[in-house]
Amino acid sequence: MASSLSKNPPPSNLPLRPIPGDYGLPFFGAISDRLDYFYKQGIEKFFQSRIDKHKSTIFKTNMPPGPFIAPNPKVIAILDAISFPILFDTSRVEKYNVFVATYFPSVSFTGGHRVCAYLDPSEPKHTTLKSFLLSLLAKKHDQFIPLFRTCLSELFIDLEDEMDKKKEAYFNTISDNMSFNYVFRLICDQNPVDTEIGTKGSSYLDKWMVLQLVPLATLGLPKFLNFFEDILLHTFPMPYFLVKSDYKKVYDAFYKFSGPILDQAEGFGVKREEACHNLVFFFGFNAYGGMKTTFPSLIKWVGLAGEKLHRELADEIRTVVHAEGGVTFKALDRMTLTKSVVYEALRIEPPVPAQYGKAKEDIVVQSHEASFLIKKGEMICGYQPFATKDPRVFENPQEFVGHRFVGEEGEKLLKYVYWSNGRETDNPTAENKQCPGKDLVVLLCRVMLVEFFLRYDTFTVEAGTLLLGSTATFKSLTKATSI
């Protein structure tokens, strides 16, 4: 499926236009945009209405939460596949205290430390911490697949038990428990059930993450409660003390059982306490948090795609596993449709929808129609679902197309799949801001599909939404008739 962009690339001499849009009155403009974003329009309409109004995918606006959580809500929004990658160029865009929004949560949530995710690559500690994390992942490489298969076996038992009892199964809770167990066992070589955490690890992390991210969410309450919700969630930062004891339990367990890893951190010049807080953030916020959104999204889209795609996946997976004698890295690499389905899920619903960065210098960015000057110090906001559903790059961009990335032409489109603070075709390094676990996420999604379709022929789901992500509820599940 060739992209229209590959056939008609944008000219290099596009005219320089002033950036359209405005920020409105001080304070009140930010509040007005926040109310549009959460209540009057919703996120998709918020961006689309401004694209339509300004006839541009690059414009000025305010982004939530605004006053009083974020001191400066003004951004330059970039919403197309051509302009978006400027956010990955850390030579021109600064990531200092910038992660998923215009505000910086209190360092109380991370033991008083600015963890790696909030460091700019120009800071020496960023290179040190990210090198440590990449080294850790490399050493755990051989455990990725066998441990995940073990955890998935437990997940499928829970899934079938719930289906037997209730005739349906809410996947998110089952998936969250499995994801935390996997992360903890991978790093600490312990089942969390056998530690002080018990079965509450995922709930501890959920509360800890929610308090940091709730300024970006809405509860979907009745309209007459919008004002009260806005005041409660979007006006003042949530205090750390509400989750202090929960976070301490997770931190203490990581510290107790990751001794050899903390020894390695000291070899990188990182003190054990700081290393442990970075471990909790990376494997708790980034890894577990990413799995928490990605796995239900993957199951949702594959489930909604229907039985024909299920048959094709099952045929490919079972044929390759039989030929290769098991679920191996080589076998996974041969599954072209399975890989494409994972990429398509990441394209249509990126786990982290927004990326931010501050211009280090005057930058000229280009959309499909024009060029624009972003001035030094201005904040840039890219909303990924618009960039990864750019109709000038992807045909039928709003549709989930499982075969989209199969074949030579399909593989050319992978450079427009933005989901890990980088392109799918890029690799994380100590010098960039791409997620260190990017390749692990892709691998685990493939293994999840493989293990699923080795056991089941087809399934149906009911899709929904959460504060920050999708839900999937199994309504039917058909066991495999042949393997």
Automatic annotation (TrEMBL):
Highest taxon of the lineage: Eukaryota
Positions that bind heme: 435
Gene3D superfamilies the record matches: Cytochrome P450
Alphabetical list of CDD domains matching this protein: CYP74
GO biological process, one term: fatty acid metabolic process
Pfam family, one: p450
Keywords, ordered alphabetically: Heme, Iron, Lyase, Metal-binding
Family, per entry: Belongs to the cytochrome P450 family.
Protein name as catalogued: p450 domain-containing protein
